[in-house]
Amino acid sequence: MKISVTFVDNVLEVRKEGEGLQAESWQRKLDDFELKKNVSTGITIKDKKQRKILFWKPVEENILMVYTRGGEVKASYAPSRGAYLRVLERMCNVQHISLTRSGLSLQLQVGVVDRGDFTFADAALLIGGRIRQPFDIPVSKKSLDKVKDNDPFFIRKFYFTMDEMTKEMEETSSRFDIALKVNGMDVTFPVKIEVPDENIKYQHVPMISFFYKDQAVQIKHTGVGNVLFVCRPMEEAEKKPAFRFWESDLVSGWLYRRGKKEKEKSSQKVSLFYEKFCQKAEEGTFEIFDMAWKRNPKGAYFIINGDSPDYQRIKDHPNVVKQYSKKYYELLFRANTYISTETPFHLNIIRSNNKYYRRSIAENTFVFLQHGVTYMKCHGPNSPFLAGREMEPDYIVVNSEKEKEAVHRMMGIDNSRILKTGMGIFSKLSYKHLNQDSDDIAVIMLTWKPYEDNMEDFTKSSYYQNTLAVYNMLRKYLPADQIHIVIHPKTGAHLEKTELAPSIWRKPISEVLSIAKLLITDYSSVCYNSFYQGGGVVFFQEDLKFYEKENGKLIPKDDEYIGKRAFSLEELNAILEEGCRDGRIQLDVFRTEEFERRYRQINEFSDGKNMERLCEKLKELGLI
Question: Does residue 587 have a pLDDT over 70?
Fold first, then answer.
């Protein structure tokens, strides 16, 4: 038997031939490979233990490879740092881990296998960017299947002081990894801890957590057993004596146990409503809460921080509860359901040290109202909302059959848990109130690219350069006071120091969208909110190919976009030249009948009754 691999004209071909055998062949174009995904060729071999590289070709920063594993011939287009992991037999398991105010103690069972194909060098334990501790990695010539837990050859111990672990840096969550060079190439793989099936739903609950100096620290694991060290500055609330009392293990533990008993005994369902960081009441959640409260006065409460600008407006409602109050903590552990435009993490400190509150999250029902239509960005494999992930909603609200199909396909959520009622936020918006006679206001709202996080010079980022270029282009058609820039929170401090500072919008985003006769964005779902109100949309996507490579393919097909698209500044200028004349934004250029038709397929509801439909559905489900 002979297996051959060729790569000609960007087509990979694998062939299996041998005496008395019918030749087998498999082909795939390079463009059809998905980064990081392994593909079975359907070609098999007899030796199921063989791990061998048959083909290896660097393509840009990645590796196109063909290899054998598990009795199959497989192909992959993989990042160089992970390519060798397809064939490298290895183990790295936690045998002991403890974190105290003195430091971190860690014992690993770790090793790799070399049958003559590999060279290894520069092995080190990594804890994110915080720690890099070199060590001699055990190398075996035999399979690791039968290694005993107490075999000293494979055991390595590590210790780091808390001052080493908590050194100041921007990184919050640090994964435990092993790094080494394999045949001269950098390779990284995660340290693993055993996660019993019954613990998977508690994956976001810290194993260990406490405060050290001015830091909140945790050891936790993911659902697949990756180990994380979390270190973040303490929030001001966490420094207050009342907070430390209510959030202590003793008090929170008692409230948690009492709440569980009450829920078991009582038929009364309690739902908590809230918005982002418990700092707002502007996305429709408060109005939905009020409807639920009128149906069931003892079963619906709205949580809001006392320092919120919206608190004074709603504080006299009998079931509005101030965050971190005594009533808040009683409800936190008594609640059956969370209903919000944000995850339950927003009810408390993000990455809270309170393990009892975080256990409650896993045990209660989460209804995700959404704050944007899910018909733009891809929910990739790292999204916390995917089925089986820590923030998987029990129910999610959508606006159309198209969106329902997209959510089911991307997130793996069963159709029975996808509620097509329309998002509550749209009930607060006036449908098509903007028209040709409206003020000629243009809004720029580009999305921040995570792959530019570590750029030393912000002015060299595509975010800044594109925002500046679009602004300068609009200035040819509109005066400066009619152009507003909505910035991403990560860029605020940077943009404040640039010439764009006077045009930065500093009020709620909902307010600027209500006056945006023209919105220029790239990949933001706010396009649907703007279009609903009568505005026109232009999509400036000059980095589309690279963006999709890094973040996954966008949801809309080419014939589903609700506005004109530009893939270069020249194309954008041509669109603006056509649609902006004599200092006026010509809506009929940006809102064609075809764009209107496409929009109605993505957002089916425009009657302003989304909240009523949603409340009826929640009542039907027994959630309010």
Answer: yes
Distance CA 528, CA 599 (A): 8
For 331-359, b/e burial (b = at least 16 CB within 10 A) is bbbbbbbbbbbbbbbbbbbebbbbbbbbb
- How many angstroms separate the first and last alpha carbons of the chain? 66
Asked if residue 553 has pLDDT above 90, the reply is: no
Q: Between residues 268 and 488, which one has the greater pLDDT? A: 268
Question: The dihedral of CA 385, 387, 391, 394: what is its sign?
Answer: positive
For 279-320, how does the pLDDT look when each residue is reduced to its tens digit (9 = 90+)? Answer: 999 899 999 999 999 999 999 999 999 999 999 999 999 999
- Cβ proximity of 486 and 455 under 8 Å: no
Mean pLDDT of 101-125: 95
| DSSP helix, strand, coil percent of the chain (3-state; round to 5) | 30, 30, 40
Residue 132 CA to residue 225 CA, distance in Å, equals 21
At 410, list the tokens: 């991307």
Structure tokens at 4: 């051959």
Decide: 209 and 99 in contact? Cβ < 8 Å. no
Distance CA 67, CA 81 (A): 16
Helix/strand number for the chain, H first, E second: 18, 32
Backbone angles phi, psi at 565, to 5 degrees: -120, 140
Instruction: Please return the burial class of 518, using the count of CB atoms within 10 Å of its CB with bins 0-12, 13-18 and 19+.
Output: buried
pLDDT at 552: 82
pLDDT in tens, 388-410: 777 889 999 999 999 999 999 99
